[in-house]
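The records we work with from here on pair a chain with its fold. Here is one such record, which you should read through line by line:
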Amino acid sequence: MSVFITLLIKIIPLYVLILLGYIAGKNLKAQKETIASILIYIIVPVVVFNSIISTKINIELLMLPLIFFASCSAIGLSFYAIGKGFFNDSTRNILAFAAGTANTGYFGVPVAIELFGEGCLTTVVMCIFGFTIFENSIGFFLTARGSHTVADSIKKLLKLPTIYAFILGLIVNYSGVNLGESYQAFTKNFIGAYTVSGMMLIGIALADMKSFKFDFWFLSLTLIAKFIIWPIVVLCIIFVDKNVFHLFTPFIYKIMFLMAIVPLAANTVAFATELKAQPQKASLAVFISTLIALIYIPLLTSIFLI
């Protein structure tokens, strides 16, 4: 119980950021479209690039983004197929994105640091890359298809800078180029902006909602994907590795499981807003999943990780 209460208290500041975002949206008229674009096209690429160049990469770590990208894609495409039986508009598209990814960055990073210390960051970052690659490839394409043609969706996909930042980061990393302490000090500012902007975006999007109309099936399917399907999938991966492949350590298993139980991705709101794919439904689903996570994460953490 002490672990539950301790972690509960430590993650409350993330909810304060959502509240501040809501206040900014209501009273300062902050625009979710502006914040979403800044996140997608500036902050996230810089964070990804900086994380890649500062990570000591080995085969074990490289397997993590591959495993999570495959998991994101499989779950996202599965729910895209399931959505056909429930929706005939872009709700199906944003369902696929929401189901396939998670708030591993804005939410997962601070929670992981509280649980495991800053030494976990390299492993956490490599897990996040799997989600990031999905969001900026298959996830983006599926979402864009809700209101764009295949050709337009591909054009928009190719304009995303995050994948290019990831590739460039790998090149810089393997070439051994040192960008200097000034660069490192400067880009650390983006990590704080990454969490603050991402969590506040949820509140800003909520403030922009004209009414809280529940789409029962959309909400149910996203929550099933996030809080039931994802933990089961990752536990199966851990079971197989533990008994067959022996690639990872128990410490990495804990981080993998944490990545599976964080709430719906705040980027769901960013991409839904950017692509005009039911941003209000996305905002409400992300907010509700984040509220559930307030109890869900400390509970599962106290059971499985401590």
User: Anything to note?
Assistant: The chain has 14 helices and no strands.
